[in-house]
């Protein structure tokens, strides 16, 4: 069994577009009639749902941003009566009110099928024992993935987060074959598995990692440490949650489910990017009932891949995410993504898997990047001159990629904080 919903997953491009158009019309009509926010926005633009005659007309629709969710806290963007909403999730956010999202019973069904598609796509079957080691709560990664596992019939192991050694014991005792968690937590789990010396006791084959950016280097690292194939899992609460886009077994780009989302990639001026050109992902939900969102700016940077996928799925692929538009550091006018730094660091055998970037503005107004980098096990020879050489090498390699100088501080393995959820790789101390 290679597909969960074969008809849709392999649908001809033109049929997919027809389906999108029908669903877009319906979504916009529901938003216009039931959500005052969208009604007003469309009125301001002099539009009604009847103006939508082709998919291209979507470009004229109003846009939505995270602030709009906050402004309409908690339930102001719901397009159905509250009595139809069977679940809410929320993201805490660091400032202000959380953003709340709601689901009808049908939304939960749609979402579960979408996640089941992903699981089957990476090779899971009913025989698999699937551990979901993310936070079960307001975070969509818990219940979202869980329902998908149950839907496709594997055995769900809802271990949540915490107590890493026990998680590993469970993995061994239950014969866990597939794991879903953040890549940061996967690294911590892998490190602990190696420390415990139990890697040969694991039956793990498949790792699905997401909820934060990670690099191809981190993938190789995890695959080697745990003897698995590792897949990228993308999603956001505003568009159901996890499962929106997922890698297939080609491990080369994430299929985004175009029967559920209309995809745009736009540059900083809002113009459409050509395939291969990086920009911000903007999504319109096509099937969400409780809370449809139109042209939602995800803040995530990627690009569209053009070539057909050998796996047979026809929905377009997105390149693995380069980071968030707002995670991009602008240091002395140069754009730096944490993922670029990770790419450089993980290529070096002397360097471990953890780093933290601290950006600060010095007295003369010049921004400085300092990067704390953990060394790998046994990399310290005891010779200080070797350390200095390594430090110089890291600084040089980073400079050639980032185009600006950074100060490297080599620290002992284990000294940077480990996380069970999303990691915080950047600390920006600038007051800007
Ligand atoms: O992180 C949903 C999720 C759960 C996805 C489990 C995958 C696995 P939020 O908490 O709303 O939802 O955060 C969404 O996380 O806009 C991206 O910035 C980031 N993100 C999620 N997946 C990836 C990924 C969940 N694979 C935000 N690569 C998104 C890069 C990711 N960034």
Structural account:
The chain is of the alpha/beta class and 432 residues long. It folds into 2 domains: 82-324, Rossmann fold (3-Layer(aba) Sandwich); 329-431, 2-Layer Sandwich (GMP Synthetase, Chain A, domain 3), CATH 3.30.300.30. Helix content is 31%, strand content 24%. It contains 11 helices and 21 strands. It has helices at residues 6-9, 13-34, 36-44, 66-71, 105-121, 140-152, 164-173, 183-196, 216-226, 338-346, 384-402, and strands spanning 85-91, 99-104, 129-132, 155-157, 178-181, 206-210, 229-235, 242-247, 254-256, 261-266, 279-285, 296-302, 304-305, 317-318, 323-324, 329-331, 334-336, 351-361, 367-375, 407-411, 426-428. The strands form 5 sheets. The chain has a 9-stranded mixed β-sheet with strand order 4-3-5-6-7-8-9-14-13. The mean pLDDT is 93. 5'-O-[hydroxy(phenylacetyl)phosphoryl]adenosine (DLL) is lined by residues 91, 134, 139-141, 210-213, 232-237, 241-242, 298-300, 321, 324.
Q: What does this entry show, briefly?
A:
By secondary structure, the protein is an alpha/beta fold. It has helices spanning 6-9, 13-34, 36-44, 66-71, 105-121, 140-152, 164-173, 183-196, 216-226, 338-346, 384-402; strands at residues 85-91, 99-104, 129-132, 155-157, 178-181, 206-210, 229-235, 242-247, 254-256, 261-266, 279-285, 296-302, 304-305, 317-318, 323-324, 329-331, 334-336, 351-361, 367-375, 407-411, 426-428.
């Amino acid at each position: 069994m290679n597909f969960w919903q074969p008809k849709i997953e392999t649908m001809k491009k033109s049929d997919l577009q027809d389906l999108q158009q029908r669903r877009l019309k319906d979504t916009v009509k529901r938003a216009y009639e039931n959500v005052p926010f969208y009604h007003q926005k469309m009125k301001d633009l002099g539009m009604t749902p009847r103006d939508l005659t082709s998919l291209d007309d979507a470009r004229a629709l109003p846009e939505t941003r995270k602030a709009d969710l906050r402004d309409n806290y908690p339930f102001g963007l719901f397009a159905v009566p509250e009595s139809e909403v069977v679940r809410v999730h929320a993201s805490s956010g660091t400032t202000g009110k959380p953003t709340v999202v709601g689901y009808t019973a049908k939304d939960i069904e749609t979402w579960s099928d979408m996640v089941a598609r992903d699981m089957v796509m990476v090779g899971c079957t009913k025989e698999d024992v699937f551990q979901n080691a993310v936070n079960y709560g307001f975070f969509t990664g818990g219940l979202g993935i869980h329902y998908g596992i149950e839907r496709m019939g594997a055995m769900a192991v809802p271990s949540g987060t915490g107590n890493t050694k026990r998680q590993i014991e469970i993995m061994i005792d239950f014969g866990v074959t597939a794991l879903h968690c953040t890549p940061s937590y996967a690294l911590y789990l892998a490190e602990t598995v190696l420390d415990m010396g139990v890697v040969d006791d694991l039956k793990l084959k498949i790792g699905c990692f997401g909820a934060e950016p990670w690099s191809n280097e981190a993938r190789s690292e995890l695959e080697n440490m745990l003897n698995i194939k590792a897949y990228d899992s993308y999603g956001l609460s505003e568009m159901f949650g996890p499962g929106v886009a997922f890698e297939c077994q080609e491990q080369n780009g994430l299929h985004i489910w175009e029967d559920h989302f209309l995809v745009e990639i736009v540059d900083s001026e809002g113009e459409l990017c050509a395939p291969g050109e990086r920009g911000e992902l903007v999504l319109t939900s096509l099937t969400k009932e409780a809370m449809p969102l139109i042209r939602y700016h995800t803040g995530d940077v990627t690009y569209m891949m053009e070539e057909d996928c050998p796996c047979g799925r026809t929905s377009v692929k997105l390149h693995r995410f380069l980071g968030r538009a707002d995670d991009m550091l602008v240091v002395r006018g140069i754009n730096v993504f944490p993922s670029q730094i990770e790419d450089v660091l993980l290529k070096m055998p002397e360097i471990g898997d953890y780093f933290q970037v601290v950006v600060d503005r010095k007295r003369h107004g010049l921004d400085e990047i300092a990067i704390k980098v953990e060394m790998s096990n046994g990399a310290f020879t005891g010779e200080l001159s070797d350390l200095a050489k390594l430090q110089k090498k890291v600084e040089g390699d980073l400079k050639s990629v980032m185009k600006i100088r950074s100060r490297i501080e080599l620290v002992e393995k284990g000294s940077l904080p480990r996380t069970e959820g999303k990691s915080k790789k950047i600390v920006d101390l600038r007051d800007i």
